[in-house]
Amino acid sequence: MMWLSPSEIEALHLSLSVAARSVVFSLPLAIALAWVLTRRRFVGHTLLDAFVHLPLVLPPVVIGYLLLVLFGTRGPIGSWLQRTAGIELIFTRNGAALATAVMSFPLMVRAMRISLEHVDAGLEEAARTLGAGAIDRFATITLPLMLPGVLAGAITAFSASLGEFGAVITFVSNIPGETRTLPLALYSALQSPGGDAAAARLAGISVVLGFSGLLLSEWFARRVRRMLGR
Amino acid sequence: MLTVAVQKRRAGFTLDAQFDLPTPGVVTLFGRSGCGKSTLVNIIAGLLDADRGRVALGEDVLLDTELGIDVPPEGRRIGYVFQDARLFPHLSVAANLQYGAKRARAQRYVSFDDVAALLDLGLLMDRRVHRLSGGERQRVAIGRALLSQPRLLLLDEPLASLDTARREEVLPYLETLRDQLAIPMVYVSHNFDEILRLATHIVLLESGQTVAQGGVGEMSLNQRLRAIIGADAVGAIIDGTVLGVDASSGLTRVQVGTGELMVQAAHVAIGAKLRVQLLARDLIVATQSPQYLSVRNSLAGVVTTVANDDANSDLIGIDIGGTGIMARVTKAATRELSIAPGLRVWALVKAASLRARPISNASPDAK
Fold first, then answer.
1. A1 in a structural domain
2. Which H or E run contains A29?
3. Among candidate residues B22, B19, B48, the one with its CA nearest the CA of residue B362
4. What are the strands of the beta sheet with B284-286, ordered from one edge?
5. How many Cα atoms within 13 Å fall on the side-chain side of residue B359?
6. Closest to B86 (Cβ–Cβ): which among A126, A145, A228?
7. CB-CB neighbors (< 8 A) of A129 in chain B
8. β-strand partners of B209
9. Burial class for B228, CB neighbours closer than 10 Å (0-12, 13-18, 19+)
10. DSSP class per residue in B179-195
């Protein structure tokens, strides 16, 4: 990567790190929500469903603003986190990960739900009659069978996280080395005189990453499908 | 003893079922589709809630809404073979079979090797589930359920999705199960032929209500059952005792009531039980002891009932020393021969038109 400047490599590295954190932390929650939304019927189902999908339809700046209100130093959750765990989100890469996680969450849940809808609930019943309790059933039947969706969701969310701009810049600003991810670096390059070449390189990286993500996701899905015998 | 008495109300449908099964035995839930058979089986398994009722296996209460007992399906130790097999597609045949076995906490009464041998699963072990034929799938599903060491096996139309050839391929295994493992089974079917071969008891369901139940012999004469199975299948089913082989004809002699029948059957030991189906349409009624006929079988008895069958024929119930049979004759014949209850008659049937199958564990048709 000799043709990239140190600050560009830093942005790439930071983007990958932020996206990875975002996916790792949102994955369990997304699986749980996908399961609840697919397998359970309860009062407020529609409301919860809409709430999960909100980031898809709201401007990213609004999400960034809401995160500031909730997770800022004086926000109810932000101040609590700082007091109890010493975790600071605002202006940090963890904060950037939170913003990208919220933005990519609906994509992740959606991919998992589609996959889970194709898992025959009858198989879970069969496991039940064979003596498997709820957690056992989920771990040995449901999760392995919805794996294509989990992988697809994770990869899509990872790719989307690499490119999240609005929510990140609103919530954690544009700090080199801490929150300046690829799209933010690209934006900064465009703002500075003579940054055209850097912008082009950063755009190129983004395209390559996004493309590889999609191809990887397809390849994984195919492998898993073969493993599951479909 | 399996005792079931449950009620469940659904939109436009009420299930109100009550039956007992002496164990070991095979009870078939029989009825037209939509009569609530599957609902009932799901309640026994615990996969569906009942509004009210009780399900008990011997001393063990699995469900009692009055006492607030409701053991979850995973704790009931009831094996379930579904119509669509429901094998786990991400596991091999062997792993499918082991799934329940690994989770069985109770005393094992059947081993992996026994089940593999019993159901001929040896060659299938390493196969992926989606490479199995329909019949093979059901055999694996049966094996998987058995290996969970169940106290009761539920089979919900396990052969319904198979064609006749595949059905023929699986049925013998179910017969072996009944005869060798002596595990009580609840078998749901609307195929009377399967019932004839497997059941020791029949419970008849009509729009959610259990309307009749009893041993196969007794139930074969039941009027409500006749209405469902169709005129051609109507006839007595008798679990007779093998007396020996007739030297001159090679036919097997079977004791039926006070009479004796000659049937074509594969070699069976003397004293063994043989289930014989005497179709009403195949029986001929004579009012004098017949002579000069090619017919091998003649059962002497007394007419008990003369029932209207359809516009042109009657069903004559005949008692042959405690065992009932049924013959269909035209109304004209009933009139001309003056057939009426109390009349002494002979029922004739060709050996070739009798169907006989060995059955151990037969229902004691106490009458």
1. no
2. helix A6-39
3. B22
4. B284-286, B344-349, B297-308, B313-319, B324-330
5. 26
6. A126
7. 45, 47, 73-74, 76, 78-80, 145, 148
8. B16, B206
9. middle
10. III---EEEEES-HHHH
Q: What is the pLDDT of residues A167-211, one digit of tens each?
A: 999 999 999 889 999 999 999 999 988 888 889 999 999 999 888
CATH number for the domain spanning A181: value is: 1.10.3720.10
ipTM for the predicted complex: 0.83
The strand ranges marked E within A141-188 are none
Q: Is B139 left (phi over 0), alpha (psi -120 to 50) or beta?
A: alpha
Is B88 close to A132, i.e. CB distance below 8 A? Answer: no
Chain segment A130-165, per-residue pLDDT in tens: 999 999 999 999 999 998 889 889 998 999 899 899
- List, in order of start, the domains of chain B with CATH numbers: 2-229 (3.40.50.300), 235-358 (2.40.50.100)
The per-residue pLDDT for A87 is 86
- How many domains does chain A divide into? 1
Q: Is A122 on the interface with B (CB under 8 A)?
A: yes
Cross-chain Cβ contact A227/B90 below 8 Å: yes
Cα–Cα distance for residue pair B329/B314, rounded to 1 Å: 6
Secondary element (H or E) of residue B254: strand B252-256
Cβ atoms of residues B362 and B271 within 8 Å: no
Q: Cβ contact (<8 Å) for B103 and A120? A: no
What is the DSSP secondary structure assignment for residue B128, as one 8-state letter?
B
For chain A, state the CA radius of gyration: 20
- A120 inside domain: yes
Tens digit of each residue's pLDDT (9 = 90 or more) over B307-335: 988 889 999 999 998 899 999 999 999 99
Domain holding A117, by residue range, is 6-227
